[in-house]
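User: Please run a holo structure prediction.
Assistant: Happy to. Please share the sequence and the ligand.
User: Here you go; the ligand is coenzyme A.
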Amino acid sequence: MSELQRLTITPKTDPPKRAASQDPSPVSEIKRVKLSDGRLQPAAEPEGSLPFPEKPAVLEERNGQIEFRVMPLEVIGGITFREFRDRAFGEIVFFAVSSHQQVKGYGAHLMAHLKDYVKATSPVMRFLTYADNYATGYFLKQGFTKNITLEKSVWMGYIKDYQGGTLMQCSMMPHIRYLETTLAKIRSLSKSHVVVAPIDPLSIHAIRATGWSPDMDELARVPRRGPHFNELRRFLYQIQNHKQEWPFLNPVNRDEVPNYYNVITSPMDLSTVEERLEHDSYAASKNLVDDLKLIFSNCRQYNNATTVCTKCAVKLEKYMWTLIKEIPEWYELLEE
Ligand SMILES: CC(C)(COP(=O)(O)OP(=O)(O)OC[C@H]1O[C@@H](n2cnc3c(N)ncnc32)[C@H](O)[C@@H]1OP(=O)(O)O)[C@@H](O)C(=O)NCCC(=O)NCCS
């Protein structure tokens, strides 16, 4: 099994070293240690502290997760990877930077660090990852491509397959030190070393003329989506793409089924669930799952058990519970 290691950052003088690699894990084993949001649950107690040759920032890796902190010490992001040494590739399993710290360069920095680290410590020269469709632009900028040149036989069945994501590959160059390259690029473009006194934007006529106010800035910084949005969207997407979803896609038509709304007092359908999700109406996964359960119970209440609709409801509900079981954080939603 490829292993998840703990290592801490130590000064340059320490040579890199790492526990020897082992055979890649089958997917079932990966599932056992991977949480639904991509975080990894420790599969076993790590072997000990391992040094890393550079300390470009405050970075710490534990259990296969690299944490990246800025001062004052605050975890602002992390990346989790799994090596398949014998197959000379690695899977980026989870990667996120806090929403309030995104698009400041931390993601690029962390990726460069990961590339250098993996290159320095293993034979892995390629990464695969299922990129969230909103993040493919970021991955393209980090040298990833949707053109997968790795043979399917090398990776298929070894990495977890996601729906609603795009498989992307990155091939690393042996002679490039990514962190230096990134920092050199930043240094050549940046004026961050020039310290200027804070400027009040409203002292600039052109900014005042736009009608801008600090409140607008605050508003723009508020994340547009709740923290669980992506996970809920992915979950709903899977339900919506199931074969048996068709009876529940839209509200029941009053003209076609005149007495429906006399019988069913709390109607629900998948388009309404999607709309609620888009409007951030679900504070927790439970609320969305409750709406789905309502769809199924309404269906059973109105139709008898032998109808096509009820059969679809039974199958779709069963599929929903299968999906929920795959998400450890949602275990409390499981019913006896
Ligand atoms: C994807 C993610 C990790 C990027 O981290 P980040 O700190 O925002 O990235 P950076 O600031 O280093 O951006 C590097 C470059 O990518 C660009 N970029 C960042 N996010 C992007 C996005 N979603 N789409 C397109 N380009 C993006 C930046 O503008 C920047 O471009 P530049 O080099 O021309 O200036 C972060 O947006 C995130 O956590 N997203 C949510 C989780 C996620 O989607 N993770 C991906 C795993 S599927």
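The beta strands are 58-62, 65-70, 74-84, 89-97, 126-132, 144-145, 165-171.
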